[in-house]
């Protein structure tokens, strides 16, 4: 039986195409609220980051999520991302 094709997504910091399960999705919904999307299926504008502490810190420093999601991303979102990466 053929293997199921693994979906690839691009990390907004490194511009690398990686399997979706190796990335964290951040979403801005139509109300302008920003969330860390653990399911990868929430409605809204999404951006992907590698599950790497240095990548998340680079994203924070360069404000790339603000540009990608067209909104200002709160400090707590970056902290939540760092906490999640620390777990894995």
UniProtKB/TrEMBL annotation:
Annotated InterPro entries: YlxR, YlxR-like_sf, YlxR_dom
Domain YlxR: 9-81
Pfam families cross-referenced by the UniProt entry: YlxR
Protein name: YlxR domain-containing protein
Species of origin: Piscibacillus halophilus
Lineage per the UniProt record: Bacteria, Bacillati, Bacillota, Bacilli, Bacillales
